[in-house]
Design goal:
Length: 458
């Protein structure tokens, strides 16, 4: 079975509803950006806690995303996941550095009212902020290109140098640069000129917008939105472009400044949300595939002992009875020999459907294998309920199965075992029900037999 994220990256066309959702979201997003652009410099209240909370929460999100991507790169050997992991780990480093450099976020103001930062100088937070935008602007399209090449021929190339060197080369340069800017207050380029950006800072912001546009075009051409993952990478590129546009002309604590942080959070959180949702879906599918019989859709025998033990314990707590019914088709081999295995499969599916109709919602219904089924009746008040249920099942399965021109009759033998002190374990109860089923076969089948516990000798 392919791993979850590789399934996410496999080529797939969006359903009509999904495609419509993408179009509607894109139109609403474009309208929001168009409304915000004329108001980016509108001043709002200074809330230093906002950039701190924004950076710290995003650092956690990007770190988790990077770990998931590294693990997937290790499992699948797909280089694109390693590039994505390096991108998100670099952003996490820059976000953590930003919290140390942003004035007023962690330390009280100076006596003269000037906001203070833990490390760095006045240009350091702006330099770190613009650098993480450059990293995401370049890293996401680069990841999209590498992912598309990795999967172009349906083959997964091996990573030549392993995961750890890839992580190191992807993160250490950013770590060294941000450390230098933090420890040497005047090391960061002069990008900030209160209350806004310096001419150099404005040029860098404008260049970031151009890079975001180019990155979006590259991602579209490389992926053509041909998979779930590529569509979400394109969404991140679009969100990042809106973030870059709002940074043009935005002053610190202005409307555009706050809106850009909201879009940045959405862009960097989107991939983690998608990955978590996809992993949960794959986990459910894997569990369903492992515990469900492919032919009939019933549960298979994998969890039978565990389920039966749980129900026996509950019956004991509630001082109620429990019954196990072993059901075996009497002439199934003759059906396969005479009509073929395709007709045998039809009969098994029909038997499963009829059994579903006869059991209650809380009862367990399992295909044990071949032509043998298990029904666990729970919450019984007396033994007669189990016998009555077995009688109904025998009568229902006595009716012929009709398929095309064939009318096939395959009655069943049913063995019934009731929970009691002589069957303290699930395996004991199953053995007794199995013995009762063989007793039913010995008298000709098409009937049920209830196991009678041996009376202990004095």
């Amino acid at each position: 079975m392919q791993s979850p994220l590789y399934q996410l990256h496999r080529p797939s066309s969006p359903a009509r509803r999904e495609a419509l959702s993408w179009i509607v979201a894109a139109l609403l997003y474009a309208a929001a950006i168009a409304w915000l652009l004329p108001h980016v410099a509108d001043p709002l209240r200074d809330v230093p806690a906002v950039p701190l909370a924004h950076a710290l929460s995003l650092a956690v999100v990007t770190s988790l995303t990077a770990v998931v991507l590294w693990l997937e790169a290790r499992r699948t050997q797909v280089r694109g996941y390693l590039v994505l992991g390096g991108t998100f780990s670099s952003i996490a480093v820059l976000l953590l550095a930003f919290t140390l450099a942003f004035p007023g976020a962690l330390l009280p103001d100076a006596p003269d009212g000037t906001p203070r930062s833990v490390l760095g100088g006045p240009n350091t937070p702006v330099a770190l902020f613009l650098l993480w935008h450059v990293v995401i602007t370049v890293g996401i399209p680069a990841s999209a290109v590498v992912l598309s090449r990795d999967d172009a021929n349906g083959r997964v190339p091996a990573l030549r140098h392993g995961i750890v060197p890839g992580v190191v080369w992807g993160t250490v340069p950013v770590l060294l640069l941000s450390t230098w800017w933090l420890l040497v207050p005047d090391a960061a380029p002069a990008l900030f000129q209160p209350p806004g950006l310096s001419p150099l800072g404005t040029s860098v912001t404008e260049a970031t917008v151009l890079l975001a546009i180019a990155g979006l075009i590259v991602a579209v051409v490389a992926t053509r939105a041909s998979s779930v993952l590529s569509r979400w990478l394109l969404a991140i590129c679009v969100l990042n472009l809106g973030d870059a546009l709002l940074n043009l002309g935005a002053l610190r604590y202005s409307l555009g400044w706050y809106a850009a942080r909201a879009l940045g959070f959405l862009a960097l959180s989107a991939l983690l949300i998608v990955l978590v949702v996809q992993l949960a879906r794959i986990d459910r599918r894997t569990d369903r595939a492992a515990t469900t019989d492919a032919l009939t859709g019933l549960r298979n025998r994998i969890t039978l002992d565990e389920d039966l033990a749980r129900e026996m314990a509950r019956a004991e707590r509630e001082t109620r009875r429990l019954a196990v019914l072993v059901i075996d088709l009497d002439r199934f081999k003759q059906i396969n020999d005479r009509y073929g295995h395709a007709m045998g499969d039809v009969v098994l599916r029909e038997v499963a459907a009829r059994l579903r109709a006869e059991v209650r919602a809380g009862d367990l219904l399992v295909r044990l294998g071949g032509d043998e089924f298990i029904v666990v009746l729970v919450g019984l008040d007396d033994d007669d309920q189990a016998a009555a249920a077995a009688g109904r099942i025998v009568a229902e399965l006595r009716r012929p199965v009709t398929h095309r021109e064939h009318h096939v009759v395959s009655p069943v033998s049913v063995g019934v075992a009731l929970s009691h002190p002589t069957a303290p374990t699930p395996s004991d109860l199953m053995l007794q029900a199995d013995a009762a089923m063989f007793a039913a076969k010995q008298v000709g089948g098409d009937c049920y037999v209830v196991h009678v516990p041996a009376t202990p000798r004095p």
